[in-house]
Amino acid sequence: MTTAAFLPQEVIRRKRDGARLAPEEVAAFVAGLTEGSISEGQAAAFAMAVFFRGLAREECVALTRAMTASGRVLDWSGEERPVLDKHSTGGVGDKVSLPLAGIMAACGAAVPMISGRGLGHTGGTLDKLDSIPGYRSQPDVETFRRAVAEAGCAIIGQTADLAPADRRLYAIRDVTATVESVPLITASILSKKLAAGLQGLVMDVKVGSGAFMTELDDARALAESIVAVAEGAGLTTRALITDMNQVLGRSAGNALEVREAIDYLTGVARDPRLHEVVVALAAELLQIGGLAEDAATAEAAISAALDGGAAAERFQRMVAALGGPGDLIEAPARRLPEAAFRVAAYPETAGTVAAIDVRAVGLAVLSLGGGRRRADGAIDHGVGLTEIAGLGEAVGPERPLAMVHARSEDEAQAAANALRRGFSLGDHGPPSTTTLHARIAL
Ligand code: URA
Question: What count of other Cβ atoms lies within 10 Å of the Cβ of residue 417?
Fold first, then answer.
């Protein structure tokens, strides 16, 4: 609807000059974006105007609602379990969604999780799942629904009919230097979550050298915006700000992270920081969904789901329901792809890890072939890093910075060099480290 009253250039001009847009103006602009009557140039100008002028909360709610309504909204009205999800702003080694989906399903939730691919130096949940042979990460909606019904959880990619206005605007933002805008990120993430038909959401807003937000104040602003706008749009949401000044868990790289998630679920190995983040997010969600009265009850339910094997069993059921092997949990080494070369990346001198440029670690994985150089590029699921050293750990000739899994000796050495540049060693580690920085709730 681009009638005379809603000329796109007038909406852009008003936002450029700092005016507050009416919900109808925002809705008309988004309708034009979806149907194609608004040009790429106009969408880019709008995004840039918002980048500089911002959006008031009501405008951001209007943008979120309009982008949600631009496509299909999933309806879970026949579902008796609370419909819940978690979303992360992205990090390195962030495999939280994999165990969390199984835990939540085991605790009585329905988790229809729409995930993304890797962005920049960060890994994407969808790319990790694509390393499982046969796993269909882009199924039709019926298969998705069946998987949620059978397993209690299903993790898939954004389909073309969910929030198409966001899909178009995001692609334009990506090439016009307008991604880093709190209201645009807020509306983008939430429109997809609302289109998935959720009743509750927990956000994991990452902060640190491996996150898009490197400063706590910026992460807090994004978390507060997401929580307030989600509530304004009718979706109960809480956010945790969690640390990305070191890789989460011990691995980074697609199949390697699936393996770590399986080892976590089965109890073979459970990295304490990864566990802290998984438990904190799952506990929030259980409370949002009315499945636990308080944090202590939630944590007890999570422990029972992990220790009794129900969370691992739910994850396995999800994998099988989406076309993956029925014995992934029992035989991950047989099912997951592996890189041909394995090389230890030793530091030049012995010392203690004082700081990590986690972005550089993510880029090392990308250079190994574990991420994309261009949007349509293929990735190698077997490559990446394991046994990655954390802050405060002693490294030296006996303890490498990480094990590099590569396609060739040359690529392994290049990644090892990048890691040596990314790790700062000293006589001691940082004075303190924090995994959970803040909790944001209305
Ligand atoms: N992820 C999204 O889905 N949208 C953004 O704008 C940024 C990250």
Answer: 12
Contacts with 54 (C-beta within 8 Å, 6 or more apart), sequence order: 181, 182, 183
Q: In terms of residues, how long is the chain?
A: 442
Catalytic residue status for 188: yes
pTM more than 0.85 = yes
Q: Report the candidate in 179, 88, 89, 93 with the shortest Cα–Cα distance to residue 362.
A: 93
The yes-or-no answer on residue 128 being catalytic is no
Kindly give the distance from the C-alpha atom of residue 264 to the centroid of ligand 1, in angstroms, as a whole number.
28
How many C-alpha atoms does 175 have within 13 Å on its Cβ side? Answer: 9
Q: Note if 399 is an active site residue.
A: no
Q: How far away, in angstroms, is 64 Cα from ligand 1 center?
A: 12
Separation in Å, CA 384 to CA 92, 158, 400, 421: 11, 25, 15, 17
Q: What is the dihedral of CA 262, 155, 82, 107, to 10 degrees?
A: -10
> pLDDT tens digits, residue range 357-392?
999 999 999 999 999 887 778 899 999 999 999 999
**CA dihedral sign, ordered 308, 277, 133, 344:** negative
Query: Cα(385)–Cα(343) distance, rounded to whole angstroms?
Result: 10
- Domain contains 63: no
Domain span at residue 356 reads 338-426
CA nearest ligand 1 atom 5, residue: 185
CA distance 95 to 262: 10
Distance 218 CA to ligand 1 centre (A): 15
Residue 310 belongs to domain with CATH number: 3.40.1030.10
Q: What is the pLDDT of residues 395-412, one digit of tens each?
A: 999 999 999 999 999 999
Annotated active-site residue 192? The verdict is yes
**CB-defined site of ligand 1, < 6 Å:** 170, 179, 184-185, 188-189
Say yes or no: 312 and 349 in one domain.
no
Ligand 1: which residue has its CA nearest to atom 1? 189
Q: Please indicate, yes or no, whether residues 366 and 417 belong to a single structural domain of this protein.
A: yes
**Domain count of the fold of the chain:** 3
Q: What distance in Å separates the CA atoms of residue 213 and residue 394, rounded to the nearest whole number?
A: 28
